[in-house]
Amino acid sequence: MFDADEEVFSTPSVIILLTLKASELRDKDVFSKSDPMCVVSQFVGRLSGEGRWVECGRTEKLQNTLNPEWATQMRIQYFFEEKQTMKFEIYDIDSSSTDLSAHDFLGRVECDLAEIVSNRPFRRPLSGLKGYCGELTVWSDEIDEGSKESVQFHISARKLEKKSFFGKLDPFMKVYRINGDGTRLLAYRTEAIKKQLNPVWKPFIVNVQLLCNGDRTKPIVFECFDYHRNGSHSLVGNCQMNLDELLSKEIKSKPLINERKREKKGNRYKNSGTLEIEDVQLLKNYTFLDYIAGGTQLGFAVAVDFTASNGAVHKPTSLHYINPTQPNQYEIAIRAVIDICQHYNNSKLFDAFGFGAILPPETCVSPIFSLNFDANPTVVGLSGVLEAYRFALNRVKLYGPTNFAPVINEVAKKASSLPNDGSRYQVLLIITDGAINDMNATKSSIISASSLPLSIIIVGVGNEDFGNMKELDSDDRALSYGGHTASRDIVQQYIIIIAHNKPLYIR
Q: What GO biological process term is on the record, naming one (predicted)?
């Protein structure tokens, strides 16, 4: 019989990072080129006799291009002994709607993850439309979870070459890794800065493995472009360095060279501007086990979503459905996560909160409340959390909205009182069914808390769209909002897929 817990947590696996690009896409727009985005899904549940496609993530939308080179990478857990079927669907994004049916379909590729891993790069023609509709290329990298190094870049440019006497540029930078076969892999793309010849880009972070495959002597290419809305970005110039050179602090500036202009102008050509290395730092990404081995004591808080979008509790379709004979979706998720976390919590104490409900006889929503309805939200162990959850569920009225900021702020207060010597650390688990309503306030709260000994784990249950949560899990760029930037990434997101009342799959 299939044991969900054993399948998820015991099967040998590695983390694979997928980098995507496509070529010769079908042009669906009349007056411009398509604005493509790729949606990556995985088929799960095959072993249980049931199965469905589960979305793993979406790339960014690229404007006006039929040959997109996406910067958003996909992290996929690769189980060696399993057949993992992947689906890549490309859409022309015409609006801000997250509903894919609102956008033009450009083609798809279905394949096994093993095919991608064993063919680097993996190439396959797109299907789903009549005739040839382009090709998808996927490059896979195994991410060594033991690798604890990333690089934080602070870069700018000076005196970029103007295209006309009065004109300025909208410059952005692409950072490429050079593979062993000479091909290039996009590691990062900065934002475009409007009307500027001396741009200063936001700081960004790239994993060392993605940047140079762990080889600090491999060349890293920096290419500066002038952004154009029609997608025909023009090259300003490029340069290359390796990581050893960047970390040595000896190189402060590097000329950006446009070979075509150098050939045309000969000795009269100097450069098309300079890349300024403001600061490059090697970051040590200490793992959870590093802190445990060092004697860090962990404290845990859990916050449960009681908003009306979960469905009326008396209906079997509700994620909060009260069934005397079996657990509901939230209870399964609580058990799956806390059953693991409690082993790292010597006290076995949890602060248990709810949010988004009305607590009778009150008539206004409570942005945060104790599940046990006590001034002290602390309960003992997994059984205490489940008991408090049922206690609250039988007394509250599901309402809304789905606001994370009040919960984060409450737990951040506790984290701010902890000593800063690494001996104590706070973890907040937020279990929710869908989109965040206070995204901007949540970003501000996360940024404010990013200097505290606090991590936030967002666990999604149900079938809703969790896409907007991904921007909180800022693995490649520090979270920014309102002119402020997080000092580190403190958010991780997981989606729990449940079948036969078990956590069948966690991603």
A: cellular response to calcium ion
User: Does the fold of domain 296-495 match that of domain 13-142?
Assistant: no
The residue among 395, 397, 374 whose CA lies nearest residue 384 is 374
Inter-CA distances, 32 with 92, 96, 132, 188, 302, Å: 12, 18, 20, 26, 48
d(CA 205, CA 186): 14
d(CA 467, CA 416): 30
User: How many Å apart are CA 362 and CA 215, to the nearest integer?
Assistant: 61
Which CATH superfamily groups domain 13-142?
C2 domain (2.60.40.150)
Q: Is this prediction's pTM over 0.85?
A: no
Q: Which residues have a Cβ under 8 Å from the Cβ of 444 and sit 6 or more positions away?
A: 405, 481, 482, 484
Please name the residue that has the structure tokens 């050179």.
245
Closest CA to 237 of 255, 216, 217: 255
Which stretches of 192-249 are assigned E, i.e. beta strand?
204-207, 219-226, 234-242
Q: What is the pLDDT of residue 394?
A: 93
| Encoded tokens for 472 | 């909180």
pLDDT score of 8? 35
- Are the CB atoms for 398 and 407 separated by under 8 Å? no
Residues (pLDDT < 70) of the chain are 1-13, 29-31, 45-50, 80-81, 144-148, 164-166, 285-293, 464-468, 474-477, 494-507
Residue 429: predicted pLDDT = 92
Give 71's Cβ-side CA count (13 Å radius).
Answer: 20
CA-to-CA distance for 145 and 18, rounded, in angstroms? Answer: 15
Boundaries of every domain in the chain: 13-142, 149-284, 296-495
DSSP 399: B
3-state secondary structure (DSSP) of residue 499: strand
CATH fold label, 149-284: Immunoglobulin-like (2.60.40)
Integer CA distances (angstroms), 377 to 139, 235, 303, 402, in order? 47, 58, 11, 20
The verdict on domain 296-495 having CATH code 3.40.50.410 is: yes
Q: Are strands 297-305 and 349-355 parallel, antiparallel or unpaired?
A: parallel
Asked if omega into 121 is within 30° of 0 (cis), the reply is: yes
Report the alpha-carbon distance of residue 71 to residue 476 in Å, rounded: 10
Backbone CA torsion sign across 470, 311, 97, 35: positive
pLDDT for residue 59: 92
Q: What pLDDT does 2 receive?
A: 30
